[in-house]
Write a structure and sequence with these properties.
By secondary structure, the chain is α/β, with parallel strands linked by helices. It has helices at residues 12-21, 34-46, 61-74, 93-112, 128-131, 137-145, 165-188, 205-212, 216-224, 234-245, 263-269, and strands spanning 4-8, 26-31, 50-55, 77-82, 120-124, 193-199, 256-259.
């Protein structure tokens, strides 16, 4: 049996990370749309990877459980890359919370129960989680520790408390980083590690939607006034993921890494600061 890499989300970032960390492993590539998974699987297969394409709905526990069973039947799951999600311009509040917040928490629970010793996982969060104003300690604890199936009942996630889709997205991404801290303890009991990456604007189809959407002008302004002055690439995110998930990152778990070209630094202390 071959060791398995599970990639949830067939987009540019998931594919780039898979290329970096999956040599010699069987890649199970899952996406909500099977045609997206198959298209990316064909690209990886042409590059020499052993790949299976399948579908998954990350907002459905039974669907994620089916994915876990499919991947486990191939071999021990050594790598989890969770790169699926929706953006503020792509979906309403309820969908963002169901996919980005609940889906991530639930997926970490399910894969945390089967991850192989020596395994590692990475969740793609977002710089948006770092720009959300500070929550209370009680709110942080609720997002971090509430059982996944009870998360969407939290008062702070109800319709009267979530202002708009961006707020829902920021809450979701803050929750992602908090869940990784808690899951790192549980994954550690199996001899595995898990972390999150919070990218800034990375040129992917999702980012192009944002740049051409109603918030596009604001995002372009972010890039222009950031220290690096440009958007990132999927390969730059993958290089960080490979470091974190490989032997050089063996002391890293329960952490979130901000990689945004300095946008967040500028937002708090530079030209993007609200004065």
């Amino acid at each position: 049996m071959k060791d398995v890499t599970v990639v949830v989300g067939a987009g540019s970032i998931g594919q780039a990370i898979a290329r970096r960390v999956s040599a010699g492993r069987h890649v199970v590539l899952a996406d909500l749309r099977i045609e997206n998974a198959q298209s990316t699987a064909n690209v990886l297969a042409d590059a020499g990877f052993d790949v299976t394409a399948t579908s998954v709905d990350v907002s459905s526990r039974p669907s994620v459980q089916t994915l876990v069973r499919e991947a486990s039947a191939i071999g021990p799951i050594k790598v989890l890359v969770h790169a699926a999600g929706v953006s503020p311009s792509q979906a309403p509040i309820a969908t963002i919370l169901a996919v980005d917040l609940y889906g991530t928490a639930m997926l970490l629970e399910e894969f945390g129960a089967v991850i192989a010793p020596g395994g590692s996982g990475v969740v793609i969060a977002s710089q948006s989680g770092h720009r959300l104003p500070a929550l209370t300690p009680e709110q942080d604890a609720a997002l971090a520790t509430t059982p996944a199936d009870e998360l969407l009942q939290l008062p702070m996630l109800q319709a009267d408390a979530v202002k708009d889709t961006l707020h829902a997205y920021q809450l979701s991404k803050r929750c992602n980083a908090l869940r990784v801290r808690v899951e790192a303890v549980r994954w550690g009991e199996r001899g595995a590690r898990v972390n999150s990456i919070s990218p800034g604007i990375v040129i992917t189809p999702l980012a192009r939607d944002e740049l051409s959407g109603p918030r596009g002008e604001g995002y372009r302004n972010m890039l222009a006034k950031s220290p690096v002055g440009r958007a990132g690439t999927p390969d730059e995110i993958a290089a960080l993921a490979a470091l974190m998930m490989g032997p050089e990152g063996g002391f890293i778990t329960g952490s979130d890494f901000l990689i945004d070209g300095g946008v967040t630094a500028s937002y708090f202390y530079g030209p993007l600061a609200q004065r």
